[in-house]
Amino acid sequence: MSYCRYVAEIQTIGTNEWRTIGDAQICKERIGAFLHGSLHWYSSKDHDIWSFHFGNEQFLHVSVPDDIKGNNHPFVSVFNSYLCFSRIFKNGRQSDIWLLKEYGIKDSWVKQFVMERGEFGLLYVPLLCMGSGEILVSLKGRFNLLTYDLKSETYRRVRIQEVSSFDVVACDMKLSEL
Which residues of 88-115 are buried (b: 16+ CB within 10 A; e: fewer)? Predict the structure, then answer.
């Protein structure tokens, strides 16, 4: 059995020098989320989440619960400042949304809610809980913003004037006054 090894290199902005920081966890999937100084993605190789922390320049393994592992269209995002993992289940009729309540603690994953199949399928990624109780979602991190009402299990399209296409990147930001 052959084993592929990937090496991560970092270049400091403004220099022409690259330095090796060790073995890299390859990311073939779409990058999911930026949270706690790290970029996160789902690895279909080991069915877990990996991240790269830009401050300490290290890769970190973030385990998902064993009973939700698998390739049922998993997606990693940030929802209400928590690392979020979603996947499709029940024969493609529902998507469950899990939040990591204590970052880095596998046992702190909590199933937050379930979304029913919508107009475009189940590849919706929750972004934000709005004051009205609705959830702002995107179509798997792409254009098409919608709101999802948990009570009525209905979706409503959100239109942005004069914008035809955009990508959504989930991140958590803290702003402070200078």
Answer: beeeeeebbbbbbeeeeeeeebeebeeb
Task: For residue 140, give every residue at least 6 positions away whose Cβ sits within 8 Å of its Cβ, in sequence order, or none.
Answer: 75, 123, 124, 125
Stated pTM of the model: 0.78
Please write the tens of the pLDDT for every residue from 80-110.
Answer: 889 998 887 767 678 888 999 999 888 999 9
Tokens of 126: 């929750």
How do the domains of the chain map onto residue ranges?
Answer: 16-171
pLDDT in tens, 41-84: 888 778 888 888 888 988 888 888 877 776 677 888 888 889 99
- C-alpha separations of 73 from 11, 51, 119, 124 in Å: 33, 19, 17, 10
Separation CA 33–CA 24 (nearest Å): 18
Do 24 and 51 meet the contact criterion of CB atoms below 8 Å apart? no
Question: How far is residue 131's CA from residue 104's CA, in Å, rounded to a whole number?
Answer: 28
CB burial of residue 159 (10 Å; 0-12, 13-18, 19+)? exposed
Identify the bridge partners of residue 88 per DSSP, sorted by sequence position.
95
